[in-house]
Write a sequence for this structure.
């Protein structure tokens, strides 16, 4: 998605050789109009996958997932939780996910009543780096007896290997912008799939 | 908002006398079409406040804030963070917020570059209970030299006193549904303001 590549180059902020910050329009301050454009693009890319539900993980995936839901004609969004509130009394599916940017491992969980056998689940998130969150979400979908029909990320960091790992498991992975490398403060894109 | 009261009665789940769970359409599984209807209602209620920015806190406020942004013609959404990722290297405004449902106190933070002096900020969240998150967000807006032009909650739990406390500080507080009491598993609404 050319517009996203341009926005990353214009508003993204490079830290070292691993991280590009997009907190000015995706994961702290949100450009909702741009989210809707990304939502439309996800709907175009995954149209043939015919998802009936979108699964993401709190917090940065929520805005993107809601925009995509709208583009798919308002299919439900479920977001996995990282902490268990005391209102979460029911049975849950859980999986461990490591966060590269926070340096933590969280147990993410989804209430069993929100994922059903037979669901065709599209997993969406803001970043796809090492693929840890994606793998945890796939695990949860599998536990529910549902099917992962696709996994989309706004920004794939190809050099961190998560997309390749997930494709190796047979997952239909697509991203809107794929970063091949960050060198001397400069972001280089590769063709996204 | 009649539709929200009806949805709480139909899909909400009462726990004891303090809590009503709305994880089936607001804060775990999201009914995005209904979020958009709530967003329209917030835009109607706070039209005269002329906000230029919406502030919420991760994670449950994000979907509502994005829907309202759209109804206001796409004003930016900023969500306060509860944990500091290692990409958050810049100066932040911080305030402490107690979570009634999680039994924790978190330090919430907003990057200084995303709130500016002169901003007219509408604070939105899913619940307004004891008002702790609302007060913390107001504090952050004040630190930025910006103005809180309104505070809206989808669901106000009037009996927990947060709305009255915030109104006592002169904040323009409105909610889409106001719960007066929960007794014998039954939710009773009062007129929301």
């Amino acid at each position: 998605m050319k517009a996203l590549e341009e926005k990353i180059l214009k508003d993204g902020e490079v830290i070292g050789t691993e991280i590009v910050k997009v907190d000015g329009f995706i994961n702290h301050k949100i450009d909702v109009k741009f989210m809707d454009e990304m939502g439309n693009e996800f709907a175009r890319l995954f149209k043939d996958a015919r998802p009936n539900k979108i699964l993401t993980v709190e917090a940065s995936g929520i805005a993107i997932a809601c925009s995509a839901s709208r583009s798919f004609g308002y299919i439900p969004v479920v977001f996995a939780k990282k902490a268990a509130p005391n209102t979460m009394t029911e049975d849950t599916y859980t999986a461990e996910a490591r966060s590269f940017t926070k340096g933590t491992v969280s147990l993410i969980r989804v209430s069993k009543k929100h994922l059903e056998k037979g669901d065709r689940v599209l997993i969406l998130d803001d970043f796809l780096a090492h693929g840890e969150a994606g793998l945890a979400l796939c695990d949860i979908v599998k536990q529910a007896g549902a099917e992962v029909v696709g996994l989309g990320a706004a920004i794939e960091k190809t050099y961190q290997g998560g997309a390749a790992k997930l494709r190796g498991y047979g997952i239909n992975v697509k991203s809107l912008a794929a970063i091949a490398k960050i060198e001397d403060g400069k972001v280089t894109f590769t063709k996204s799939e």
